[in-house]
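[#protein-structures] MJ: dropping Small ribosomal subunit protein uS17 here for a structure pass
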Amino acid sequence: MPKRVLTGRVTSDKQDKTVTVLIERRVMHPLYKKFIRRSKKYAAHDEENLCREGDMVSIEECRPISKSKSWLVVQRNGETVARPVAYELLENIELPEEQGA
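AK: finished. structure tokens for Small ribosomal subunit protein uS17:
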């Protein structure tokens, strides 16, 4: 299953190795047919503390890192952010096949 990738704006960079990203989407009202803006904030992992408030970032869904973080910053202002080596190693691990009894 492909990982979800969302694009939004950094609203807070005060936490260590964590940024808060505001994702906005537009939905049509079912009765009035007017487009309404809906938004949600996600906590994303920023390993090297590169992101600053106001940056446009792309975040990718990943394994849970903490209670509130299960997103990883992959691009900042259009530039690819270096991913931690640990994540690349976890993705490349091949699990042994189970043998039936």
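MJ: nice. Strands lie at 5-12, 18-28, 35-45, 56-61, 69-76, 79-80.
AK: one more thing. The mean pLDDT is 88.
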